[in-house]
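Risk register update: the risk that structure generation would not scale has been downgraded. Supporting records follow, first protein first.
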Amino acid sequence: PRRAVGPTRRGGRMAQSEAQVQSYLDKHKIQTVVEDAINDAVKAQADDPAMHMARFLEKAAGRPKITAVHARAVFDSRGTPTVECEVSTAKGTFRAIVPSGASTGIYEALELRDGVKDEFMGKGVSKAVANVNSIIGPALMGKDPTLQREVDEEMVHKLDGSKNEWGWSKSKLGANAILACSMAVCKAGADAAGLPLHEHIAKLAGHRTDEMCLPVPAFNVINGGAHAGNKLA
C-alpha cells in the first residue's frame, strides 16, 4: 500500500507529514536525547528503566521556567474581594490567595483597593488583578520559580519600586498583587525542587531541614481595636 506523503486526518485531527515530524525531532534533538536516556539506563543496569529514563529526561529538560501567570478576583472568608494568582510551569499550575486582615497598621505595605463605593463597599481588587495580568505576569515569564529572592526583588524593587520612610511600600502595584504572585511562585518552586512546601521555605530561609517540627499554634484570647466590637483599645 502507498504511504501518505501529505497531512492526513486521524481521529478528527490532521496528522503531521513525515517531513514535519522529522523537522521537529531534528530541531529539538529529541532522538539524541532519548538515545542518551536509554544508554544511561543500560549503563546503570537500572531495575526500573522507565523511571531511570524519566529522571534522566527531567534533568535534561534544564531549569524550570514560569510559562504563564494569571490573576482573578475571588472572595475571602469574610466575603471581601481578594486576589488569587495562578502560576504555571511545565509541571503544573499552582494557586495562591492573598489573606486580608480586618485592621491595617501604619507600617504595613499598601493593599491596593479600587475605592469605588458602589462596588463591594470600595474593596474591589480589579486594579490589583489588572496589575498582575498586564505588568507582573509578563515580567515573570521564563523565570526560574526556585529563585524566590530573584522573583520577589523583580516585583518589589523593579516593577513596583515605591518606597516610604519605612521601606518598600508596594503602593504602585499593590501588596496584594505582589504577594499573590510571590506565594504562587513559591509553590511552583517547591514542586520544581521536588520538595514539600514547608521544606522549600525552610531552605529559602537558610534553616536546617534535617530536623523539622510542626508549628506551635497560638491563640488570641482578648482582642482590641477593629477586632473587638467593643471599647477595648
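Supporting record for the second protein:
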Amino acid sequence: GLLDTVVNFQTATADDEDPRDWRVRKNAMTLFSIIMAGYGKTENAAPEWLEGYKGQLGQSMRKALGDHIAQVRVGAVECLPRLNGAFGLPWVKSECLAHMRQAIEGDEYYNYQSKDATDKPDKPGLRLGTVVALHSKWIAYFESLGKLITEQIDSETAKEWAEVLLQGVEVPTANVRFNAIFAMGKLATVADDDLLQKSLKPAIEMMANEDVDEDCKYFAKTQLEVLESTSGY
C-alpha cells in the first residue's frame, strides 16, 4: 500500500552515498507523518493495523532526527507538532525526544566536555562526514522543544525541559545557545511563576548581560522585553 511505499522510500535511500537522496528521505518522512496523523486524529476507533505503523513511524522519526543531512533533521522537527496533536506528547517524548537525548549523552564529545580536566580521556578523534556533530544534535533537540512548547504542557514536562535548557544556554557553541534561548523564551511564557522566577528568568537575564555572542545576547534581551511586557515583572 501507500504507507509501505513511503517507508521503502525512506529506508532504501538512507545509506545511499548520493547526497541528492536527502530530499527523498525528507519528503517521505513528511508524507508518512501527514498520513499517520490523519489516522491518529480520527474520532472513530483506530484501525488495528495502525499500531504496527506507529512503531515504524517512531523508528523513521528517530532516524530522520539523527540524519547526517541538516535539512532532513529540520524536516523531521517540523513533523513533531503534527504528531503531538495526533498521538500526544507522551508518545513524542518516548519515541523521539528520549532517543535524541540518548544520542547527545552518548556522544564522545559530550562525555569529554562534561568531565573534569583531571578525568578527561584523550581528546576524541575527527568525525566522518556522515556522523552528526554534537552541536547539531543539540540544535535539533532544542528546535524540537521550541516546536512542542505550548500552554498545554504539564508542569513536570516544563521542569524537565527547563533543566536541559539551562544546560543548553551554557554550551560553548553559540548556535546551540541561540536555539536553547529561543526555546527557553517560549517556555518562560507558559511556565508557572516559581519556575519562571527561580530558573528561567535569571538564566535569560544572565545571557542578556553576559553572553559573548552578540546574536545570543540580543535575542535574550528581546525575550526579557517580552516577559516584562506580558507579566509586569
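Residues 22-40 form the longest helix (19 residues). On this basis the risk owner (M.S.) recommends closing the item.
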